[in-house]
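Hi F.,

I've been meaning to write this up properly since the lab meeting, where we talked about keeping a consistent format for the predictions we share between groups. The idea is simple: the sequence comes first, exactly as it goes in, then the structure tokens exactly as they come out, then a line or two of notes. No screenshots and no reformatting. I'm using this chain as the first example so we have something concrete to point to.
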Amino acid sequence: MKLYHHPLSGHSHRARLFASLLGLDAELVEVDLLAGEHKQPAFLALNPLGQVPVLVDDEGTVVADSNAILVYLARKHGRTDWLPEDAVGEAAVQRWLSVAAGELAFGPAAARLVTVFGSRHNPQEVIARAHALLANLERHLQHRDWLVGNSPTIADVALYSYLSSAPEGNVDLAAYPRVRALLLRIENLPGFVPFVETAAGLRAAA
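Output, unedited:
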């Protein structure tokens, strides 16, 4: 199984993290985004959108999109603990996958794009979105340890990378103790692999 990724991509880390939590041996193939490798024909044959990550499993199946990879791995390996089969449980997980592709991407992830990659997002706007999401998460976690049910699911994995790296985008997590506790619970899971810290993250921690 090969995982085409970039180490600074939270979407890539999301897929790598879940594969590791499942104990799967994935060969990491780094895609040079700065050199435009993701826009070359060889990579576009795997994902016409030119985005990482892409998973190519040992049977040759190609899965693009980080959330799709989470679903694929959970279903292929019969891990109903990570992705429930019942309608209510699966819908609850899907809700958070939508948040990962929406509010998370346009909040904490976008704020990090400004400082790490020099994107042209409006910093005040995306930081405000990040705090709105964090406030909602803090309320949601008031009486629970995990986003869905009583154990970790791919919902938690989908949000981890960009929440944990939010300070790299000047999004302070100090006011959200329940969110920080969730991140710590994920970090204590067997098989956890950390998201690489950037220079922006080191400055934020200083």
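Notes:
The chain is about 50% helix and 5% strand.
The two ends are 38 Å apart (CA to CA).

If this format works for you, I'll send the rest the same way.

G.
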